[in-house]
Amino acid sequence: MPESRVRKSTESKKKHKAAAEATPKKVKAPSSRRWVPPTFITVGLLGVAWLIVFYIAGYQIPFMAALGNWNILIGMGGMAAAFGIATLWR
């Protein structure tokens, strides 16, 4: 019949505990993420508004007419950026 495992002695447990306490603990500075919700809502709405303006009157506005279909990328990019910012929210 196999022998059971020998338990660690109290001394080795104390050594391990002392070594763990000797390492400095990293303290995280408190960070405020209150800017995230208003920022991602604003950026997302700007992206949607850009697309709406482009579809309704895009070719009547000179700089939008010059951009052509790049306006779609700009609007979708704004919405994608809003999603990326939203991942920072805690």
From TrEMBL:
Main localization (coarse):
membrane
GO terms for biological process, alphabetical: cell division
Source organism, top-level taxon: Bacteria
TM helices/strands, residue ranges: 35-58, 70-89
Region span, Disordered:
1-33
Q: Which portions of the chain have biased composition (kind: Basic and acidic residues)?
A: 1-12
Going by the UniProt record, its keywords in alphabetical order are: Cell cycle, Cell division, Cell membrane, Membrane, Transmembrane, Transmembrane helix
Q: Name one Pfam family in it.
A: CrgA
Q: How does it sit in the membrane?
A: Multi-pass membrane protein
Instruction: Give the UniProt subcellular location, in the record's own words.
Output: Cell membrane
Q: Which family does it belong to?
A: Belongs to the CrgA family.
Q: What does this protein do?
A: Involved in cell division.
Q: Which HAMAP family match?
A: CrgA (MF_00631)
User: In its UniProt entry, what is this protein called?
Assistant: Cell division protein CrgA
- Which species does this protein come from? Microlunatus aurantiacus
What taxonomic ancestry is recorded? Bacteria, Bacillati, Actinomycetota, Actinomycetes, Propionibacteriales
Q: Which gene encodes it?
A: crgA
